[in-house]
Automatic annotation (TrEMBL):
GO terms for biological process: cell division. The chain crosses the membrane at residues 17-38. It holds the Pfam family DivIC. This is Cell division protein FtsB. Keywords: Cell cycle, Cell division, Membrane, Transmembrane, Transmembrane helix. It comes from Hymenobacter chitinivorans DSM 11115.
Length: 104
């Protein structure tokens, strides 16, 4: 069987210049281009991750604003917060920190 006979068996539309050019363009865009499918998927996954982080931080901002408003409204709460979180003390006081022993 000669090459020309093999070519004749391929349907005509598959031998078309436009089909071959379009196919080559499609392969180039999907595989070889700088923004190929793999890169697009990675960028989409990163975008979803950043959106989740954005939601977390927006929710966290609301919690911090509420805590800040509470602390600034009462000097007793502010002192309690400073003592518990930052281990602050008044002059002349001794602070003992009890750390639970870890189980082995």
């Amino acid at each position: 069987m000669q090459f020309s006979q093999v070519v004749q068996r391929v349907p005509r539309f598959l031998r078309s210049f436009y089909f071959l050019t379009g196919s080559a363009f499609l392969v180039w865009m999907l595989v070889f281009d700088a923004n190929d499918l793999l890169k697009q998927y990675d960028m989409y996954a990163k975008w979803r991750e950043l959106q989740a982080e954005k939601e977390y931080y927006l929710n966290n901002i609301e919690v911090v604003k509420k805590d800040r408003a509470e602390l600034l409204s009462s000097p007793e709460l502010l002192e309690k917060f400073a003592r518990e979180k930052y281990i602050m003390k008044r002059p002349g006081e001794d602070v003992f920190i009890l750390v639970p022993q870890e189980q082995e």
